[in-house]
Amino acid sequence: MPEMPEVEQVRKTLAPHIEGKKILAVEIYLERLIKYPQPDAFIKGLVGKTISSVGRRGKYLVLQTAPNQQLIVHLRMTGALLAQPSAAPAPAYAKIKFTLSDDVTMWFTDIRTFGTLYLVTDNDTYIEGFETLGPEPLSEGFTAAYLLPLAQKSKKAIKSFILDQQIIAGLGNIYADECLALSGILPMRKACSLSAAEVGRLCEAVNAVIAQGIKNRGTTFRDYKDGEGNKGDNQNHLLVYGRGGKPCKKCGALLQTTKVGGRGTVYCEHCQK
Question: Most buried by CB count within 10 Å: which residue of 26, 38, 204, 255?
């Protein structure tokens, strides 16, 4: 699933192509992707509107289509938003077509069709998961002082704790493994067992790992592409994720694999304590 760096890269590459463009038509080829409102109302609510900005909150893309209206998109596992010239052929797995002014077309594509789209007007619907997002990495609200008291109250494994979107918005499985590897913390430790110093190291690691992911245009193992259809490069810079059984880049010991909270997890038993 695209995480904060991937969704931020989509935002950055999509914005120059669609900001300021009017939505001339919307064609929906798979109606169940539209979670609110009904597909006909979704189309009617968008046609004639202008995309004034492309934002992001956690793993969600937020397109401002009127002062009181937002198109909120969750890519889920394999969703993508792509902008291309209207004369170009439709991309593979195209599910929704947004015809824009100035000969631009924005496509929502999705191989596994788990993506979700919401058109919110005057706050007329509640999007579970979106409304309760915690602070993001690299934001003023994400600090050790914020995280420490929450960790002290939690008996969850630290990996499961930092994957909770109400605790940290935008962090997913790839970057959780990377953050814990960089901070030298075992993924299965209880959150409440971490010292204040360890929580401080973890916060620094979260910010560093997310910043690296954004700098490297996201991580592509299979399906992820940005708003221009390009792959990321961060998969070439990972410490542990996807490297189970390979040597640790820090100490050379073979990386171990396990499951934490049902999620595949890679770690170094020598470097992570």
Answer: 255
Active site residue 243: no
Residue ranges in the chain assigned as alpha helix (H): 4-18, 39-46, 144-152, 158-163, 173-183, 196-215
d(CA 225, CA 231): 5
Active site residue 59: yes
Q: How far is CA 166 from CA 86, 142, 147, 268, in A?
A: 39, 12, 11, 27
Query: With the CA atoms of 59, 60, 61 and 66 taken in that order, what torsion angle do they form, in degrees rounded to the nearest 10?
Result: -160
Which of 3, 8, 136, 178 is the catalytic position? Answer: 3
- The residue assigned the tokens 């003023």 is 140
Give the number of other CB atoms < 10 A from CB of residue 25.
Answer: 13
pTM: 0.95
Q: Is 57 a catalytic residue?
A: no
Reduce the DSSP state of residue 204 to 3 states and report it.
helix
Q: List pLDDT tens digits, range 26-72.
A: 999 999 999 999 999 999 999 999 999 999 999 999 999 999 999 99
Q: Of 21, 56, 59, 225, which is the active-site residue?
A: 59
234, 172 in Cβ contact below 8 A?
no
Per the annotation, the verdict on 2 as an active-site residue is yes
